[in-house]
Amino acid sequence: MPLPPRPKALQHFRASDLRGVVQLATQATRGVARMAEGVHQSVWGSMGVPGGKTTGTTRGLTGLVYQTVQGVTQLVGSGAEAILGRLQPLLDAADAEAPDTPQREAVLAALNGVLGDRLAASGNPLATRLQLRHAGQRLDWTKLSTQPAAATVGGKLLIILHGLCMNDLQWTHTTATGEVRNHAAALAALGYTPVYVRYNSGLHTSDNGAALATELDQLVARWPVPVTEITVLAHSMGGLLTRSAVQQTGPSTPWRKVLKNIVFLGTPHHGAPLERAGNWVDVILGATPYSRPFAKLGQLRSAGITDLRYGFVSPQDWQGRNRFQKGPDRRAPVPLPEGVASYTVAATTATKRGALADRLLGDGLVPLRSALGLHDEAKRTLVFAKSNQCIAHQMNHMELLHRPEVTAQLMAWLAPGTSI
């Protein structure tokens, strides 16, 4: 007897997602309990009532109640996790023939962007692992059958990286008139074979950069035809990942030997002010004992998001520091790689350039100067040749992914015979 069709609300939900959702619900319940206890103790503390052994906790019967809530929540969550862990193979088998929908992948990408570091640290199955994808399939180095046939690919590779809270499917855009736009599809006319990167954008940029470098070495070693050239096309945070991968590997590594071009689209090379504004929320909420516990809400921002404060690309930029504490920019300068043609497209929603528009408007998320690599300190400025810079007016951050003007500029830069 055939199963009844799923309700529309569940069409994009896979059975195997249940385990990850249970973990998130357990963590959320414990977090709310901690926050409530913190507010409770803040009020009591203002009246001189001492608290528990650690900051933000209560004592006596009240403390016991909160500890019981935490304990029961953890017990129930662990029990459900254990049961679902045993059922995971069956859940995976049930989903084996169910294709991933763009809607589901978009939700997972956003979830990983906001909480991806926590998902990965807790082993949550909803955490995305960095992977290379071609023709809609993951390249799995342990299963040679998933590799593309040599007759269908070339040795001139286009590596494509998305930005924060996004995934590789979102490079394809369908207009209201039904026109399908994709930069990679257009660049295929120049002989490029596209390989997309999907990654957990909630992790530290440098962690993703190291993982990317490892995967690219595997790609060069296992691609069915010799790799003669790698060109990287990176949007937003993807550009920071690319610079991190380059910075953490030597020029003699296999993929660096064939790296020819890097094109940055709206990359916050020197950070994004919206993250710095988010950091100010932490400071304001922590200013009074009554609002201090709610600062934990502001601190839900993932490691990937806080790396956007100044545009971190090196592990040393964040290691040993409190990423939620406001401080000066202490990044070690990381220049553009030598011997590689580097290009940048910076967008602005303004109709023309101006001091105010350059510093405040930008593309709505990234200031124009940051996307151009400009900095008040000369040692931090990224030097793009004038001919390798493009400023797109009346364009926002997301439109960089599909606007035909951007496609035309990419074609002009990457056409055979273009020099550094």
TrEMBL record:
**Pfam families xrefs:** PGAP1
Name of this chain's protein: Pimeloyl-ACP methyl ester carboxylesterase
Q: Which residues form the GPI inositol-deacylase PGAP1-like alpha/beta domain?
A: 226-283
Q: Which domain of life is it from?
A: Bacteria
PANTHER family given in the database record: SLL1969 PROTEIN
Cited InterPro entries: AB_hydrolase_fold (IPR029058), PGAP1-ab_dom-like (IPR012908)
